[in-house]
Amino acid sequence: MSERKAPLDGIRVLDLSRVLAGPWCSQNLADLGADVIKVERPGTGDDTRAWGPPYLKDEQGNDTSEAAYYLSANRNKRSITIDISTPEGAELVRKMAAKCDVLLENFKVGGLKKYGLDYESLKGVNPSLIYCSVTGFGQTGPMAPLPGYDFMIQGMGGLMSITGERDDRPGGGPQKAGVAVTDLFTGMYATVAILGALHERNRSGLGQHIDVALLDCHVAMLANQALNYMTSGNIPKRAGNAHQNVVPYQVFAASDGHLIVAVGNDSQYRAYCEVLGRPDLGVHPDYATNSQRLINRDALIAELEEIMKTRTRDEWIESLQKVGVPSGPINNLKQVFEEPQVKAREMWRTLPHPIAGTAPTTASPIRFSDTPVQYRMAPPLLGQHTDEILEELGLKDA
């Protein structure tokens, strides 16, 4: 039997996106085996190349031109520089699109039409092309022409209204997430959409236009919080590190630090109370079910907080994990990569790099049993593969 190929082996992606949402999507596709050709502006390239410090250091410890932000979303790709604002550059992209399966872009709505690189123009060149547009607000609606950025979408889309300490406590107020979750979720939704379109094309032989918007993805990912409002009419509020629907499910202070206790059901709650030495709390009529614990949250948490202060963080974690109660520390990034489980899963990888020797990358979380993700290339230097790509596509003279 021949060796099985990567899931997207043979799929070629023309990536005209930059910054994070689009590149996050194309990095997923590249990890799955697609040949991703990253089209960049001559001279400057992807905006995130300059989003430093920190920068990747060379073997002598000096900064290179490769920002860590750029490195986070561009492995396994090849870079070509093309000035699409010129007739020659736009024509070259059209010729490339004719030989590709997917085109990914995150220009403003209508921004590529003046170059003849919009979906309707390229559909005539390649009817089987899957064309994915990532924008702030989508291709329709009153805000469609406007630019959208992760931070403003976190506010506009409601996440900041449910993130942060309660308004009646010190430090209360709106808070954004620590990473650009809207961009990342949008990149993941775009990935799913492209995979679905590729599967459908196997039946129809035809491509299609995919419209993915940051605001849409953000509203969709509100999940249970959105449904809390949609079913009750009550507007969810910030709850700090507590859960809106489950108790106890929050951060507790131990004698020497903090830990998370995430009790997911009533049996876990009773086991938790046993470890605390208070089995009576596990069967108390005010606390025995999650519904009752939600109603009587303040009284219960006040009791639990005092008990949790009597032992160290690690003592609690060890005891709780033994009886199957989810609990864990609050790690900084250094501690994350020192976690035995993170090490066992090989989440820190290194890739050969042409000027730094090696470059770090976080591993893909996707694990296949028979066609594993391959870490082929570090994020490319600007225009590193221009001649190589043109020659492969029979466009060297261009």
> CATH first level of the largest domain: which class?
Alpha Beta
**Which descriptor suits the 3D outline?**
elongated
For the biggest sheet, the summary is: 6 strands, parallel
In N-to-C order, the SSE pattern is EHEEEHEHEHEHHEHHEEHHHHHEHHEEH
Mean pLDDT: 95
Would you identify the CATH H-level superfamily of the largest domain? Crotonobetainyl-coa:carnitine coa-transferase, domain 1
Structural class category = alpha/beta
Number of helices: 16
CATH topology of the largest domain, which one?
Rossmann fold
How would you sum up this structure, described in words?
The chain has two domains: 12-221 and 345-392, Crotonobetainyl-coa:carnitine coa-transferase, domain 1 (Rossmann fold), CATH 3.40.50.10540; 249-332, 2-Layer Sandwich (formyl-coa transferase, domain 3). The chain has helices spanning 21-31, 68-71, 87-97, 119-125, 150-156, 181-204, 214-220, 223-232, 266-275, 279-283, 290-295, 297-308, 313-322, 333-338, 340-344, 386-392, and strands spanning 12-15, 35-40, 55-57, 63-67, 77-81, 102-105, 130-135, 209-213, 249-253, 258-262, 327-329, 348-353, 357-362. The strands form four sheets. A six-stranded parallel sheet has the order 5-2-1-6-7-8, sandwiched between helices. The chain has a three-stranded antiparallel sheet with strand order 9-10-11, with helices on one face. The protein has a two-stranded antiparallel ribbon with strand order 3-4. The two termini are 41 Å apart. It is 36% helix and 16% strand. It is an alpha/beta fold. The mean pLDDT is 95.
